[in-house]
TrEMBL record:
Highest taxon above the source species: Bacteria
Function: Catalyzes the hydrolytic deamination of adenine to hypoxanthine. Plays an important role in the purine salvage pathway and in nitrogen catabolism.
Taxon lineage: Bacteria, Pseudomonadati, Pseudomonadota, Betaproteobacteria, Burkholderiales
Residue numbers binding substrate: D287
Name of the protein in its database record: Adenine deaminase
Length: 344
């Protein structure tokens, strides 16, 4: 990585906004804005227990992960048709483009939908069509990662995998999300082993609220390539050393961590510590409609609160592509675009 020329505070803000970046941790159901929830509830005749967009937005005050998930799953209940999934993803992809996200790897939670009788094909076809249109019409490269819900059984995850396999060419990997505490990674050892045999990329949420032990088992039992969140790793020096030595990416989500009370304030966030310890940390939005911001909001608010530097910004933008599942040539080309922005 190059040493940067002097960069003013003003120029740094401009770079945070306009430099090319990859987003690797976005739950597409978490991009569903209250306005779209209401529009879809009317379009599909599905009642939601809130009288207005404002009342729904006022309910977005969370004390921990579970308090958020309860509302997040309720919001997703308005999604029924292929066009609904397309519209949700397209709205996110437009925001991504506006934030100079040039590559995104999008999580989706099929069990949230199949449990309500929506077909797997409906979910995947809608999301995938939006990803294809993003490349063609927005110049944004986008791929899909299917997440298993960890509060459900491994058997349910296996059935979901079976259901999704006819669409194997429409998603690049699998992840693990939902309620972390009490649902350690090893609960999904066998289904992740099967996904590995199938050549899928593997990621898992670990160390968001859960202990460092969950990060160890995500790596050693599930054999994931990236850790989603991972911010609890700073409580374990041996783990920090390993993550740095092996360049295992952490997809960190600062505004999410603030809203779910993982850190009392954004100023207390440990992103700077992770970067200074040589970890491949990245910035991501997680559930932007619920946590008060998309990618650039995460960058701008985190830098304003913590005093991270231009060198940190450059490292974060480069890390986002290094940590991506892009093919080597595309990765190199995008890293060159980061260098061009910062070294100009
Ligand atoms: N599903 C959506 N957002 C999540 C998060 N932050 N942690 C776990 N599961 C999620
Ligand atoms: Zn997440």
């Amino acid at each position: 990585m190059n040493t940067l020329p002097p960069i003013s505070a003003e120029r740094l803000v401009d770079l945070l906004r306009t430099a090319p970046k990859a987003e690797l941790h976005i739950h597409i159901e978490g991009s569903l804005e209250p306005e779209l929830i209401f529009a879809l509830s009317q379009r599909n005749g599905i009642a939601i227990p809130y009288a207005s967009v404002d009342e729904l937005r006022r309910a977005y005050a969370f004390s921990n992960l579970q308090s958020f998930l309860d509302i997040y799953y309720a919001g997703a209940s308005v999604l029924i048709t292929e066009q609904d999934f397309y519209d949700m993803a397209w709205a996110y992809l437009l925001k991504a483009q506006a934030d100079h996200v040039i590559h995104t790897e999008i999580f989706f939670d099929p069990q949230t939908h199949t449990a309500r009788g929506v077909a797997m094909k409906t979910v995947i076809d809608g999301l995938y069509r939006a990803c294809q249109d993003a490349q063609a019409k927005l110049g944004v490269s986008a791929s899909l990662i299917l997440c298993f819900l960890r509060h459900l059984s491994e058997e349910d995850a296996f059935a979901t995998l079976e259901d999704a396999l006819p669409h194997r060419d429409q998603f690049i990997g699998v992840g693990l999300d939902s309620s972390e505490l009490g649902h350690p990674p090893e609960k999904f050892a066998r289904v992740f082993a099967r996904c590995r045999e199938l050549g899928l990329h593997l990621v898992a949420h670990a160390g968001e609220e859960g202990p460092p032990e969950y990060i160890w088992s995500a790596l050693d039992v599930l054999k994931v390539e990236r850790i989603d969140h991972g911010v609890q790793s700073t409580h374990d020096a041996a783990l920090m050393k390993r993550l740095a030595a092996e360049r295992i990416p952490l997809t960190v989500c600062p505004l999410s961590n603030q809203k779910l009370c993982v850190f009392p304030n954004l100023a207390d966030h440990n992103l700077g510590r992770l970067l200074d310890a040589g970890l491949c940390a990245t910035v991501n939005s997680d559930d932007p409609a619920y946590f008060g911001g998309y990618m650039n909001d995460n960058f701008l608010q985190t830098f304003a609160a913590t005093g991270l530097t231009a060198q940190h910004a450059y490292t974060l933008m480069r890390n986002s592509f290094e940590a991506s599942f892009l093919a080597p040539a595309a990765k190199r080309a995008m890293l060159d675009r980061v260098d061009a922005a910062f070294l100009a």
